[in-house]
Each structure stands twice: as C-alpha cells, then as structure tokens.
Amino acid sequence: MAGVLLGAAVGTSKPLNLALYPILVGFNSVPKAALVPVLVLWFGIGTVPAILTAFLISFFPIVVNVATGLASVPPELREVLRVLGSSRLEAFTRVSIPFSMPYFFASLKVAITLAFVGAVISEIAASQKGIGYLMTSASSQFNVPLVFGGLLLIAIMGIALYAVFAILERRLVGWAYRGQNA
User: Fold this and answer.
1) Is 182 within the bounds of a domain?
2) 32, 38, 43, 81: least buried by Cβ within 10 Å?
3) Is 0.85 surpassed by the pTM of this model?
4) Which domain holds residue 152?
5) What share of the chain is helix, strand, coil (3-state, %, to 5)?
6) Is pLDDT at 182 greater than 70 in this prediction?
C-alpha cells in the first residue's frame, strides 16, 4: 500500500517526482542484504527483520511502476474528460487508475519474487525459523537434499503467488492484453 501511495504521488506530481525520484533511486541502490544487520539491531532476531527486508526489496518496483503508469496516461484522455465536465478526481479514477493498472500488476509480479529473496536473505542472516534458517542449518550439516528442498519450496511458493497475481491481472485488466496469451 505504501508503494502504491508513493507511486501515485510521484506519478501525478512533477515537483514530487523531481524531489523524490533521486532519493528512491539512491535508496534502491543500497544492497538490502546490507540493511539486514541494521534491522536486526533495531528489531531483534526473528520474523520482523525478514518482513521488513521483504517489504524494502519489493517497495521500489511498485513505486516506479505505479508512477510510470500514472505518468504515461495520454493527456488527451484527461482532456476529453475535462471538456466533458469531469473533475480532476473523476479523471483520475476513470482514466488514470485504469490506465496504470497493467503497470501495477507488472510491479506486483516482480515484487512478489523479490519479497521471497528479501525474506530468505534475512532468515539466513539472523533468524531462528523460516526457510532461510532451515537451509543454513541443513547446509552446516551437509544435508544437501534439504537445502535443495528449501530452494524448491521457495520456487514453488514464488510460482504460486506469481500465478495468483497473473490470474487477478487477467480478470481485472484483461482488456489491456487483447490478443495476448495469459
């Protein structure tokens, strides 16, 4: 939700775009694995750093894609609604949001796979449960099948959640993909 709101703000306001986009790019340039120790210091060992790492690693693609989708709305579409007497809010809800939905779903499909990466990195670095912890524990015992089992489980979960978002995308914005296969 935070990524969508910030993306909407950056995508609809030129001054916010100019002010925040360089900060967002700078923040995204910081390796999220380097943030895990800081998160562990602040929140302790456990699931909170894993959740925050997953959030931080998936935040940027959502902000950028939502902002790009909103900024890519042809001005003619908004102008037609303005001529017809629509308010800016009506133009936003009737044109800008639907136009940007394919961008939003593209960002969700990217973000969900990145979220798994962030969570596992955090679990490997500092956790006492989770798939990353299980894989680290198994590798220290030379239990290669369990390590590969963890990798396979992460891949299956990623594919499943990607498929859920792809199905939602097809149902909600299928109109944007005329003639293309799912």
Assistant:
1) no
2) 38
3) no
4) 2-177
5) 85, 0, 15
6) no
